């Protein structure tokens, strides 16, 4: 329905309401004359759904590639989950009738559709008990040969996981995090499901599990200053070294580029406290907005690895530090993305903004929030080229190789046209 029709209908309804006195209050008159103020959420929703007439008002630009990345992940996630279900069985197979116990009644049909669609990965067979014997599914011989490489990928992942856990603990206020919250993001980090038993005890010099108020906490045993460097700072150091080689003397002691005199139209600024910005294609910032962005990019802020208790949350520098913490947390995940619910679960440990969603939307050049899929997902924009993740860890490379067994063509890790069919 167009906005004009809704507005007229609402005005007619309001005019039909009997007035209690001859002097209606100002609020009623204001609402009757403009029932859809431009700042209201209702206005935003209706304008987004309207068709024809006046142009749509977009308050938050969509990034189609990142939305599509969520859609393309649905089938691969089912393939990988089914692989894990099969492998954890002693017989490395599962009866179709038992699938519902593992994934639930609704999801069972999605899994059965995947089994039918990918015979190169999953082999359906029966016991030798005749036509009434139960149907079971197992991995094909080709899939089993690829699965044999998973142990190597896990071994390569172990030092990465240890480093990520240490950095997460170092950023927290008390260098400890409830074990339950680590378990909440274990898939995003790439941790095995039994990491508290299989990984943590192997590194007593780094970790311990302690009881705090009746809850198990993962505790940091030793601080390492060499790890107290963010992914953003590491990239700046690499770029600064490259620029220094190209143009010696082009950088001053603060790390700013002397040759940059004009305001960048994309908001990017080469400096030690700047973030890489990637505004949506439809976003057209004016000069005043870009001036504010440049001022914010230049503003120094405390390291995310300093104790957050030192800083007043209302201080602009502390607010920028909160953006740095969100950036660093996402950088430590395998796919540089996490659900907004998972991020918000660490509010107390990292002193995240009270209005987390507003912070993410406000910094839409750094983060992208999408409601595609079963939950809202936060992307670190600079980690993606279109819909492709730029850097992949060993476990993600193994997952890609396994899922590619079901593709119609050979999988190319660097190809933006590769897809799961």
Automatic annotation (TrEMBL):
Domain PORR: 62-405
Domain of life, per lineage: Eukaryota
GO molecular function: RNA binding
Pfam families: PORR
InterPro entries: PORR_domain, PORR_fam
Signal peptide range in chain numbering: none
Protein name: PORR domain-containing protein
Organism: Papaver atlanticum
């Amino acid at each position: 329905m167009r906005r004009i029709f809704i507005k007229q209908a609402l005005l007619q309804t309001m005019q039909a309401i009997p007035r209690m006195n001859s002097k209606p209050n100002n609020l009623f008159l204001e609402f009757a004359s403009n029932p859809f103020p431009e700042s209201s959420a209702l206005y935003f929703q209706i304008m987004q759904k309207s068709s024809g007439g006046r142009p749509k008002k977009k308050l938050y630009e969509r990034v189609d590639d990142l939305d599509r990345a969520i859609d393309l992940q649905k089938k691969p996630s089912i393939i990988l989950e089914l692989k894990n279900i099969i492998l954890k069985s002693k017989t490395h197979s599962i009866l179709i009738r038992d699938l519902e116990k593992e994934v639930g009644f609704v999801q069972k049909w999605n899994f059965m559709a995947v089994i039918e669609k990918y015979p190169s990965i999953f082999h359906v067979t029966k016991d030798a008990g005749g036509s009434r014997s139960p149907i079971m599914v197992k991995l094909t011989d080709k899939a089993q040969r690829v699965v044999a490489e998973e142990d190597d990928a896990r071994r390569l992942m172990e030092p990465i996981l240890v480093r990520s856990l240490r950095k997460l603990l170092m950023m927290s206020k008390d260098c400890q995090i409830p074990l339950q919250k680590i378990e909440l993001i274990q898939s995003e980090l790439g941790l095995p499901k039994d990491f508290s038993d299989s990984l943590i005890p192997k590194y007593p010099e780094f970790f311990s599990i302690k009881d705090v108020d009746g809850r198990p906490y993962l505790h940091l045993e030793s601080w390492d200053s060499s790890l107290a460097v963010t992914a953003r700072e590491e990239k700046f150091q690499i770029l600064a070294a490259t620029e220094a080689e190209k143009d010696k003397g082009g950088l001053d002691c603060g790390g700013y580029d002397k040759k940059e005199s004009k305001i960048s139209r994309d908001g990017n600024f080469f400096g030690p406290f700047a973030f890489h910005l990637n505004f949506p294609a439809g976003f057209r910032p004016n000069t005043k907005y870009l001036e504010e962005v440049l001022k914010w990019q230049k503003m120094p802020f405390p390291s995310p690895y300093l104790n957050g208790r030192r800083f007043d949350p209302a201080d602009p520098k502390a607010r920028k530090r909160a953006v740095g913490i969100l950036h660093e947390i996402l950088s430590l995940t395998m796919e540089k993305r996490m659900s907004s619910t998972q991020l918000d679960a660490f509010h107390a440990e990292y002193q995240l903004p009270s209005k987390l969603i507003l912070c993410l939307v406000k910094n839409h050049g750094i983060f992208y929030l999408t409601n595609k899929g079963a939950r809202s997902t936060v992307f670190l924009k600079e980690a993606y080229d279109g819909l492709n993740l730029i850097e992949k860890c060993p476990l993600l490379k193994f997952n890609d190789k396994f899922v590619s067994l079901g593709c119609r063509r050979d999988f190319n890790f660097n190809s933006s046209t590769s897809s799961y069919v």
